[in-house]
Amino acid sequence: MHLLAQATQFREIAQTAGNTQVVQKETLITAGLAALTFAAFAGWFLMARRPRQWGEWVEHENDFWHGKGFISVALAEKLKRWEKGRTLRLLAAVTTCIGLIGFALSLMNWIQMMKLQHQKPRMPYNPALHWKPRQTAPTQPKPK
Question: How many domains does the chain fold into?
């Protein structure tokens, strides 16, 4: 009976504790990956589909940093060429693809954790919990 009480206590602890903190962490990771993937996609979309708007934004950004005195004119021109070039477009595309893959994996993991959270915890097999005493035939009292 002692083993059965321990098993019941273990089950109650597992049900009340649950995996709520793990699920919350997974939710935050999934939301963060979604936001980063969306930002990378937005940048890539502007670079690839709207190069004029992207070029204007790059010009304004580099003029701002040059006006504040953080970068020189030569460095601003190099950054403009690099930010408008093909290499940055490829990097943004690769970042978006990696982000989508990471987001999909994280989402699958999150869904699995949600399924496990609402599932009863499985007890490991313990033969002592399944042991039943053997039924024996009643013994006849010995005659005196």
Answer: 1
